Amino acid sequence: MKLVKLDSLLETVYWTYRSWRKGYTLTNDLRDWAQIIEFKPREVALQKIAESWARWQFLSPFFASHGLHIYDLGGPGGPGMPPKHPVSQHTRTEAWPWARRGHEDEEDLCFDFVHAVRVWPARDDNGHEVMIRVVSGPEMTDELRAFHRLNTPEARSDPRNNTLPVLKYLRFDGMVFIVMPRWGSGPFSPFARFSTISELFDLVETFYEGLEFLHEKCIAHRDIFRTNLVMNILGYVDTPRFNMRKLGEVKYAFIDFETCLMFPEDSDLDAVSVEREMRTQVERLGLKPGMCNPFKDDVLCLALEAQVMLRVAEHSLPEVGQFFDWIWACDYEDTPSATAVLQRLRQLRGSLSEDQLKQSPAGQFWTKGRIEPYH
How many structural domains is the chain composed of? Predict the structure, then answer.
C-alpha cells in the first residue's frame, strides 16, 4: 500500500485508504501530466483525456474539502461542464480579481481545453469561477518559484503586475496545486470588440507593462501566445461582446508559466543564454532551436501577438506600422527590451491627438498587411 502524504495525519490516513480501496495510485510525476498535443489517432488522444480526467475526478473530494467544486467531463473529448451547485455568481461589473460576466448561461462557461491536462476549472463555495493548476511535483519547479515571487505583498502592490493572484496553495502527496481566478482567453481576439483606437493601445501597453515587470523580476515567460493571455471576462468567444474594453474596467494578464525560467533578481538580462524553448509563437517567428536570450524571445513573441490587433490602426495612422517595423528591423542581438518597447509605444501614443485616439478601429484584426473587416 502506497502512503499518500498530506498535511495532516487524518488526511494522510484517509487518502492512503481511498487510494488503496479504489486501486488507484495518483502519479506525482509532472511528466505524466504533460499537455496532449497529438490528436491522431483520435482513440489515443481520447484515452489520454480519460486518464487526465481520472486524476482530477479522484482528487475531487480533496478540492471539495477546500471549497472547490470541479467541472465534470461532458463527454469522451470534453468539454468540461460547470457543476450544478453552487450557481455562478459573476456579474457584469465584477470587481478584482474576478472575471466579469460575459456569458448568457452555464453552457457558455464550458471548458474546451481539457487537453491541457495540468489545469482544470472549478467553482468555489461563493459561486466564483476558478482554475486549479498543478505547478510542482516533489522537486520544486521554476513555475512555483515564479508564483512565489509574483505573489509577495510587494509584487502584488505593483500596478504593473499583470498576472493573476494565487488564491490558495494546496499540497497533495508532493504535488503543489494553485488556485487562481478564471479569466477568459480573449484579449487578442475580436470577440470583445474595441470601440476606439485608444482601447487598442491600452491592450498592448498593458501587456508590455506587464512584461517589463516580469523581466524586472528576472522571470522569462517563454510561452507568450494568445491562449496564455487573458482578460477579466468570461463568455463564449464566438459571440461578440461590446463595451467590455473600457479603461478602468478591463484587466489583462499573463497566465501559464509552465516553461518559465527564474533567475536571481540581480541578473544581467542581456547576458542570459539558454536553450530555446520551441513553442508555437517561437516557431511562427521563424526562430531556430539553439541558444537564445529568453527575454528577447519574450519581447518578440508579444510583438507578434500585439501587431495583430494594434496594426488595425495603421489604416489611418501609419506611425503604428512604423512602430512594429522598428522592432522587426532589429537584429536579434539588438532586440529592444520590454522597457524600450514600452517607452517607444508611449511616445507614439503621446504624439497622437485625442480625436485620432477616439477613432473606431477599421476592422477586427490585421494579418499579413491586410485588415480583416468586421462581419
Answer: 2
Write out the E strands in the chain: 68-70, 72-73, 80-81, 100-101, 119-124, 129-136, 168-172, 175-181, 219-220, 229-231, 233-234, 252-254, 261-262, 274-275, 291-292, 365-367, 370-372
Task: Provide CB contacts within 8 A for 121, sequence distance 6+.
Answer: 70, 71, 80, 82, 109, 111, 129, 130, 131, 132, 182
CA–CA separation, 115 vs 45, rounded Å?
8
Domain annotation covers residue 54: yes
Residue 136 structural domain: 9-15+22-176
Q: How does pLDDT run across 262-318, given as a tens digit for each residue?
A: 999 999 999 999 999 999 999 999 999 999 999 999 999 999 999 999 999 998 999
pLDDT in tens, 209-230: 999 999 999 999 999 999 999 9
Report if residue 4 sits inside a domain.
no
> CA-to-CA distance for 26 and 19, rounded, in angstroms?
8
214 within 8 A of 254, measured Cβ to Cβ: yes
Q: Is the pLDDT of residue 237 over 70?
A: no
Number of other CB atoms surrounding residue 220 within 10 Å: 28
Q: Is the dihedral of CA 74, 76, 80, 86 positive or negative?
A: positive
Distance CA 241, CA 289 (A): 40
Tens of pLDDT along 190-204?
788 999 999 999 999
Q: What does the block give as the cell for 363?
A: 476592422
| 3 state SS of 169 | strand
CB neighbours (10 Å) of residue 101?
19
